[in-house]
Design a protein that fits this description.
about 425 residues; alpha/beta; Spore Coat Polysaccharide Biosynthesis Protein SpsA, Chain A; UDP N-Acetylglucosamine Acyltransferase, domain 1; 2 domains; six-stranded mixed β-sheet; 10 helices; globular
């Protein structure tokens, strides 16, 4: 049997014995009003997706078809999205994407931390009886074969394996940072340090956790119970569980690299308005790092039934056109210009308006004679005619949130259009 076929079957057997838990209860407060009415994993991304579609698609494409999504903060739109877009797995074959909301199963409190979120579902996990458990953050954008990481975990007889990337030292303050020995065994770990320790061979970078953990199940259960009994713990994987097991357990780092080139693979934390805008804008480039047109690793989602995008009028002063942009189904560009922008579904840009360097979420209507530049327009906004956004940031700050990078975030509430429901 060819070695490549043997490896594929080996990984396939491992993924069938694996349960994935997607932590999707975070508030995402650094995204400001984008998460006022929705959890961060439910935030739209890439023209037609939600952020959570990326870890869920990674599971499916990796052969992991037993998935739990742990929800808590303003989860209505997230739960509806999972029900609508992820209900195609076959329960009779043992496949599922189950929503696991905070329901005080083990303690009379809501999820107190990432580890506590898993601990409070311990009875459910015991019923599923997986051999391995993959714990994933639900708010990062990337494509990753978890099967290869599982094989790495098993080959090293690890108790815990942590997915990691190299990040600039200044950015490492928001991550768990680790030191490893020559065998990639983790010998030190500190969560969100004020002064991140650099890598020995790369002093301007740190080795950072991606928030992707593979546990051997018995080991995970033992650590969760021990942590739950510790009244001084914050019940968090990064702050508590990982530092407590390094000295006495087999903990390894898994560098996230492209399987063919060996270079660090694409991964984005879209946790701020600037990073969210930038990651979306990257997609309109000629050859973006994140390839959404990859048929071998598709990103699955709920897809509304919309007509094709339409561009109307061809007069000299009133031409419907889009250049260096991505325009989703249901959009109507009516005698207006869209340049270097990403439009989600059912957006209408009315005559004599221009949209440049902007991310426009679904069901936005931009009135006539508007100029929108370097902005994120939230779902459902109706931009009044003659509105100018992004040209005078001092004026914009009086009405909207303006990020440190100069991106203007516009929501219905900012415009006095109080929808008061999650979308």
């Amino acid at each position: 049997m060819p070695e490549s076929m043997h490896k594929t079957r080996f990984v396939s057997r491992l993924t069938r014995q694996t349960l994935a838990l997607v932590l999707a209860g975070g508030r995402g407060s650094r995204l400001h009003s984008l998460t006022e009415w929705r959890a961060k994993p439910a935030v739209p991304f890439g023209g037609k997706f939600r952020i959570i579609d990326f870890p869920l698609s990674n599971c499916l494409n990796s052969g992991i078809r037993q998935i739990g999504v742990l929800t808590q903060y303003k989860a209505d739109s997230l739960i509806r999205h999972i029900q609508q877009g992820w209900g195609f797995l076959r329960g009779e074959l043992g496949e599922f994407v189950d929503v696991m909301p905070a329901q005080q199963r083990m303690q009379e409190r809501w999820y107190a931390g990432t580890a506590d979120a898993v601990y409070q579902n311990l009875d459910i996990l015991r019923q599923r009886d997986p051999e391995y458990i993959v714990v994933l953050a639900g708010d990062h954008v990337y494509k990753m074969d978890y099967g290869l990481m599982l094989a790495y975990h098993v080959e090293r007889e690890a108790d815990l394996t942590i997915g990691c990337i190299e990040v600039p030292l200044d950015d490492a303050k928001g991550f768990g940072v680790m030191h490893v020995d020559d065998a990639k065994r983790v010998i030190d770990f500190v969560e969100k340090p004020s002064e991140p320790p650099p890598m020995p061979n790369r002093p301007d970078h740190a080795l950072a956790s991606m928030g992707i953990y593979i546990f051997s199940t018995a080991f995970l259960f033992e650590q969760l119970i021990k942590d739950a009994d510790n009244s001084e713990s914050s019940h968090d994987f990064g702050h508590d569980i990982i530092p407590s097991v390094i000295n006495n357990s087999r903990v390894f780092a898994y560098p996230f690299r492209d399987a063919q080139s060996g270079v660090q693979a694409y991964w984005r934390d879209v946790g701020t308005v600037d990073s969210y805008w930038a990651a979306n804008m990257e997609l309109i480039g000629v050859d973006p790092e994140l390839n959404l047109y990859d048929r071998e690793w598709p990103i699955w989602t709920y897809q509304a039934q919309t007509p094709p995008a339409k561009f109307i009028f061809d007069d000299d002063d009133r031409r419907g056109m889009a250049v260096d942009s991505m325009v989703s189904g249901g959009c109507i560009i009516s005698g207006s210009e869209v340049c270097s922008s990403l439009l989600f579904s059912n957006v209408r840009v009315n005559s004599y308006s221009s949209v440049k360097d902007s991310v426009v979420l679904p069901e936005v209507n931009i009135g006539r004679h508007c100029r929108i530049t370097r902005a994120v327009i939230d779902r459902g906004c109706h931009i009044p005619p003659n509105t100018v956004i992004g040209e005078n940031l001092e004026e914009d700050r009086k009405r909207f949130h303006v990020s440190p990078g100069g991106v203007v975030l516009v929501t219905p509430d900012d415009l006095g259009q109080r929808l008061h429901f999650a979308r």
